Amino acid sequence: MTDAPLFEIDDLHVSTPDTDLEPGVEILKGVSLTVRAGEVHALMGPNGSGKSTLATVLLGSPEYEVTSGTIRFQGDDITEWDTDVRGKAGLFLAFQYPQEIAGVSILNFLRQALSARKGIEMSVLELRLSLMEWMDKLDIDPSFMERYVNEGFSGGEKKRNEVLQMAVLEPEMAILDETDSGLDIDALRTVATGVQAVRAERPNLGTLAITHYQRLLEHLQPDHVHVLVDGRIVASGGPELARQLETEGYESFK
User: Fold this and answer.
1) What angle do CA 185, 210, 164 make, to 5 degrees?
2) Can you list the residues of the chain whose pLDDT is less than 70?
3) Whole-model pTM?
4) What is the DSSP string of the chain?
5) Among 151, 62, 51, 52, which residue's Cα sits nearest to residue 106?
6) Which of 84, 159, 237, 238 is deepest in the core (most CB within 10 A)?
7) Parallel, antiparallel, or unpaired for β 206-211 and 91-94?
């Protein structure tokens, strides 16, 4: 790990857009967070606290409006960057609810995504070899690469596919939006082990894991834990903060 900031959120205020029928509603109310290379940060909070809003805003979602504050990545202010530009620069989001893409195989999807990320045309053979290597590490059947993206996948398969994408695309910063959502204990362990395998290959990868529960953090072992309540980070600390939440809940932070 280094002391140089990899990813910085500074006093970020975010609202839903104004419409003809009603004004926008402020959801994030001054969020600040700094992730350095190699660090794992966990963001925890109750339903409706703004966790998933933050995740989508960090990838440039047009559903929300940044009213003030900045997002910086590798020293660049990316607050106004489009989603595809952020992705090409090395920012990755693992979705809470991964979408199905009918008729597009995982192999072809990743070939297009990686070609855009690297700025070169990736050969099918080269990518197939990389996929086979990672599928072996992540305990995924090789036939997986020919299946259509998330079509007919179980919850665990969808989340493992997200981890596979993270491995192959080689981002600099990964945001995991409730990757543990809907998983049983065995599936959670498999996904968390996959994330750790990617981190072992890329020790400078910064990670922001957004979750409700400590169980994911038992595997990821975060360096820092933050509590988000009503659009604000109300507490920050080490792993002991997650354990406190597990026993006391969020009421003491409201």
Assistant:
1) 65
2) 1-3
3) 0.89
4) --SSEEEEEEEEEEEPPP-SSS---EEEEEEEEEEETT-EEEEE--TTSSHHHHHHHHTT-TTSEEEEEEEEETTEE-TT--HHHHHHHTEEEE-SSPPPEEEEEHHHHHHHHHHHHHTS---HHHHHHHHHHHHHHTT--GGGGGSEETTT--HHHHHHHHHHHHHHH--SEEEEESTTTT--HHHHHHHHHHHHHHHHH-TT-EEEEEES-HHHHHHH--SEEEEEETTEEEEEESHHHHHHHHHH-SGGG-
5) 151
6) 159
7) unpaired
Residue with tokens 């507490």: 235
Alpha carbons 13 and 68: distance in angstroms, whole number = 5
Question: Smallest Cα–Cα separation from 216: which of 32, 41, 33?
Answer: 41
pLDDT digits (tens, 9 = 90+) for 175-211: 998 877 777 777 778 778 888 888 899 999 999 999 8
> What's at 128, amino acid-wise?
R
User: In this structure, are residues 9 and 46 in contact, taking their beta carbons and an 8 Å threshold?
Assistant: no
Residue with tokens 């988000």: 228
Report all structural domains of the chain as residue ranges with CATH numbers, in order of start.
Answer: 5-253 (3.40.50.300)
Tokens 């595809």 found at: 84
